[in-house]
Amino acid sequence: MKIESYRDLVAWRKAIEMTVAIYRPTVEFPKEEIYGLTAQLRRASVSVPSNIAEGYGRTSTGEYLQFLGMARGSNLELQTQLVIARRLNIATLNGIEEAENLSIEVNKMLVSLLNKIRASAK
Prior knowledge:
Layout: H1 10-26, H2 37-57, H3 61-87, H4 93-121
C-alpha cells in the first residue's frame, strides 16, 4: 500500500483507536480527577496521533523523526498514567487493559517506523 497521507499510516490509525479507548474508561473516573489524571490521560493520548500527523506534514526527515519521537514519548507517558490509574483502582480493569494493549502496540509501531525512516535516511 502506498502512503499518500498520514491517514494511511497504520500507526496513526492505531493511535486514534487507542485515544478512543482512553476516553471510554475516563468517563467513569471520579469527578475530582477531571483536572488531574483524566485530563492527563486524554491529553497524552491525543498527543500521539497528533504528533504522528504533524511530523508527517513537516518538510524534513529530521523534523518527522522529531515528531515521531514526541509521539513515542507521549505514548510512554500515557502508559505510566495508566499504571497509576490501575493502582488507584479508579477505572474498570477492562477499559484499562484495552488501552494498555493498544498503547503497547502503538509503541512497537512507532519504534518500527522510526527505525525504517532512520535507515532510509542513511
